[in-house]
Design a protein that fits this description.
The complex is a heterodimer of chains A (241) and B (265).
Chain A lengths: L1 E10 L2 E11 L4 E5 L6 H8 L7 E6 L2 E2 L2 H5 L1 H10 E4 L12 H9 L6 H14 L15 H13 L5 E5 L7 H16 L3 E5 L3 H4 L5 E5 L5 E6 H5 L2 H8 L2
Parallel strand pairs in A: 3-8, 3-9, 6-7, 7-8
Antiparallel strand pairs in A: 1-2, 1-4, 4-5, 9-10
Helix pairs in contact in A: 4-5, 4-6, 5-6
Chain B lengths: L23 H16 L16 H17 L3 H16 L3 H27 L5 H20 L2 H10 L4 H30 L8 H29 L14 H21 L1
Classes of the chains: A alpha/beta (241), B mainly alpha (265).
Chain lengths: 241, 265
């Protein structure tokens, strides 16, 4: 579904990603780990079409995503519908006057009847445990609540791929468990889940594959859960990241 | 919280067809990104850090002195001497800085010339005025390119500017970048969830700026509270003592200024 070939991204201040080769299949639950500033967020920005790789190629469903592709508004919108992103800082993702409007924002641009939009908004709020927040102003919610509303607003567009940058930060252990359970259900329904996390112990039972970056912005390990179970040293290393 | 998925979430969602979104979001994001890069002028590996032989306050005084000389004098010889001095200083710059200064001067100069174009058409003698404007712009762009924001603050401290002025400049410089980044992320969030035609595109601008305003207010209150908690009472710490080299440079600066001023009378 997603293929990265020798993908490199350079900031004016230095490399963000260095020759990344990666293949992600539909329905995978991949956890991206690594020290701060190793390139996880940069990779997510490229996958979602917010940034364009400096060199190398990125293909989504056999289509190369480059500057030319993203210039076309329709193609860009299609990519944004297929790939949903929950930012690390949910504060910057919420800009509507009520939680219900926030979730309905993307839906109102689709050819859907108002009753269908209302149904989807309700479903998303129930799925993410935000039903009671429906009429609240997103700006005044707590950090954990904002995270869940951001997830609901992304989920409403029914993306094939869900990218979540540190979605468990600021959530209570119970809320973390609920969000991971929801992500597992989505993955079982065929969605591809890409998540960045520092909390290996929390994520280890949900993710199927772990991609670990090093400080040189390269992939140090790309290992599945079964193989990782036989490597206690690596598990210890991941738990300390 | 339920984990039973509704049916629509397991089937594909219809997308609007035949609509071309305006590029204003993408264009504004690119412009804002470039602007933010300018604000984070440090950490740019492509630009080697400059060795600052001159104290920031003397550099600021030199620029202000040149602007004063250019504004008050009509002497052509003075212009040539200042141009010569500027060219010598520019030649000492690494090529990447030199290119930036010249490019900025060309752009701002072209804009300034455009403004005085009507006078040119009326046959007025504006050549001297245009030359003086270009020289002022060259000096300002040189200062802007080779001076970091921290150095500007140090210069203001050394020149005994009132603390309230330094505070306002300091906070503005910090927040311009921070709020720029916040706005950029908001635009990215809107872009990522824009999958068709918005029914109320102008309402969006209001929502974005409303959010930005609330964030600005919260940032300002939080920052002031944090500064107060760390003992800030509105007074900036005393500026470091000037070195002997700086004093000699100041003497040279004053001498050259007086000489040029008398020459241009």
């Amino acid at each position: 579904m997603i293929t990265l070939d020798q993908l490199t991204y350079a900031y004016p201040s230095g490399l963000g990603l260095d020759k990344i080769n990666l293949q992600i299949k539909r329905g995978e639950f991949v956890c991206f780990m690594g020290p701060n500033g190793c390139g996880k967020s940069t990779l997510f920005n490229i996958l979602s079409g917010l940034k364009v790789a400096s060199s190398g190629t990125y293909a989504f469903q056999q289509t190369t995503i480059d500057a030319t592709y993203l210039k076309n508004a329709q193609q860009r919108q299609r990519l944004h519908q297929q790939i949903g992103v929950v930012f690390q800082n949910s504060d910057t993702q919420l800009f509507n006057l009520t939680v219900a409007d926030e979730v309905a924002f993307g839906l109102r641009q689709l050819p859907l009847a108002e009753a269908e939009i209302e149904r989807r908004v309700n479903d998303c709020l129930v799925l993410t445990g935000c039903r009671q927040l429906r009429e609240r102003v997103p700006y005044h919610l707590s950090g954990g609540e904002k995270k869940r509303v951001a997830l609901a607003s992304v989920l409403a567009l029914n993306p094939d791929v869900l990218i979540l940058d540190e979605p468990l930060n600021g959530l209570t252990p119970a809320a973390q468990h609920e969000i991971l359970a929801l992500l597992t259900t989505l993955q079982q329904a065929g969605k591809t889940i890409l998540i960045a996390s520092h909390d290996y112990l929390q994520i280890k039972t949900s993710a199927h594959r772990f991609v670990v970056f090093n400080e040189q912005h390269q992939i140090a390990y790309d290992i599945d859960r079964t193989s990782l179970a036989t490597k206690p040293e690596l598990q210890k290393e991941l738990a300390l990241l | 919280m339920s984990t039973k998925l509704p049916d629509w979430l397991t089937t594909s969602t219809p997308l609007p067809t035949g609509h071309q979104q305006r590029h204003f979001l993408a264009q504004n994001m690119q412009r804002l990104e470039r602007l933010l890069q300018r604000f984070s002028q440090a950490n740019d590996l492509a630009r080697p850090p400059l060795k600052h032989f001159i104290a920031p306050q003397h550099k600021l005084l030199a620029v202000l002195g040149v602007i004063l000389l250019l504004s008050l004098n009509q002497n052509i010889l003075l212009l040539w001497l200042l141009l010569l001095g500027d060219l010598v200083i520019l030649l000492l710059l690494p090529p990447i800085y030199l290119r930036q200064v010249l490019r900025q001067t060309a752009v701002t100069g072209a804009f300034a010339i455009l403004l005085i174009l009507p006078s040119l058409l009326l046959n007025a003698n504006v050549a001297l005025f245009a030359a003086k404007t270009l020289l002022i712009l060259l000096n300002l762009n040189y200062y802007r390119t080779t001076t970091t924001f921290n150095q500007v603050i140090t210069a203001l401290q050394q020149l005994h500017c009132p603390n309230s002025v330094i505070f306002v400049v300091d906070i503005t410089l910090i927040y311009l970048k921070m709020l720029g980044e916040f706005l950029l992320q908001l635009l990215q969030a809107v872009s990522l969830r824009t999958v068709g035609k918005s029914k109320h595109p102008y309402q969006m601008i209001g929502l974005l700026f409303g959010t930005l305003y609330l964030k600005t207010r919260d940032y300002a209150l939080d920052l002031y509270a944090a500064m107060e908690a760390r003992g800030f009472i509105g007074v900036y710490p005393a500026a470091p003592r000037t070195r002997q080299r700086d004093q000699l440079y100041l003497l040279l600066e004053v001498t050259v200024f007086c000489f040029l001023f008398l020459l241009g009378r």
